[in-house]
Amino acid sequence: MPTPRPLLWHCAPHTRAKHELLRRYLEAWFPILLQGPRARECVTYVEGFAGPGIYEAGEPGSPIVALQVFLRQRRLLDAGKKTNVVLIEERADRLQRLQKEINDATAPYGNVPDGMRIEYRNDRCADALLSALHAVGAMKTPIFAFLDSWGGPDIPLDVARAIASAPSSEVLVTFGTRFLMQFGKAEAHQASGDQAFGGPSWRKVWDLPSSKKKSFLVSTYRESLKAAGFRYVLSFEMLGDGGHDLHLVYGTTNPLGLQKMKEAMWKVDPIRGVNYRDPRDPDQLSLELSFDPDTGPLRRAILEELSKGERTLAQLRDFTLLETVYRPPQATIVVKDLLGRGLVEREPARGQLSSDKVIRLAPKKPPETEPLF
Ligand SMILES: C[S@@+](CC[C@H](N)C(=O)[O-])C[C@H]1O[C@@H](n2cnc3c(N)ncnc32)[C@H](O)[C@@H]1O
User: Is 257 in the pocket of ligand 1 (CB under 6 A)?
Assistant: First the structure.
């Protein structure tokens, strides 16, 4: 993505969709972690590329979106729970503006609640993020790290690895492939690519045909985040005006987090031409997240999974959650459809289609031959 020089810039449709996703996800994340049977005393929200907190036409920046979620649920803070908010921005003018925007946003709530600590750093994310987290004692708390750079390889994998070592922690990374494809052969950029991926595996991109480069880089980055300690990694491409190459890669150590991120993603209204694409769908269909979404890519993914052997419906639902952009209930709908078309069969053949039912590919019928007489 081109990097704007002015203090503020235009809020593109894909940015609005990203903020909507963030808001919806944090609305689930914040109360789940701070109340309920396994509630924590403190959580930490950190942004490594915080921005000025406002866009050209007055739309709120991501730190304000997050803060408003926390402030709307301030009863949790008033009940003694604690939240750290750590905001890092390398440009002093943007950080200064962010502080003003945060002050304005907290004023209607009677300023920053006692349980909330906001820490600002005018620094580079790679240099400051971990020390800032240590300074607020965040490494013993669940951390949600939004690492929303312009999409270059700006986040050393060691930073992600350290975040993964904190309990129930998560990252949401903006990942673009264009920079590495254009400039990655320069020595300095190769070094930062190696740092971001935790090694040189990504450099195989040069040996691939153009059509395979993008999905290779995204899937290699997914594997890097897994190796860094995020057991569940979800990635999707947001398609906005002008076909920006903008992937969001979410890593978590917690399956409930993955489920909530999927739910948030499917609830984001398709905003003027912004939709998602599953980077591993070979047909690269983009998804309007509508009431009646196109489940063609999921149908293909489930058939491919079944070509490796039979699976229970529960296994197919897990596969859908962990390996595709779809949600488990959509797996059940697709399996019913495949049963109806005779492409798969189930065992036992009758009764309710519950999670323990075994699903397998139906044997291929021999081609119908013309009767001789
Ligand atoms: C894509 S914008 C972030 C926008 C913000 N997250 C939002 O959604 O409102 C990236 C921001 O990171 C800042 N930035 C760029 N490189 C940085 C770095 N290495 N460390 C910290 N901040 C950086 C830029 O000045 C810019 O404000």
Answer: no
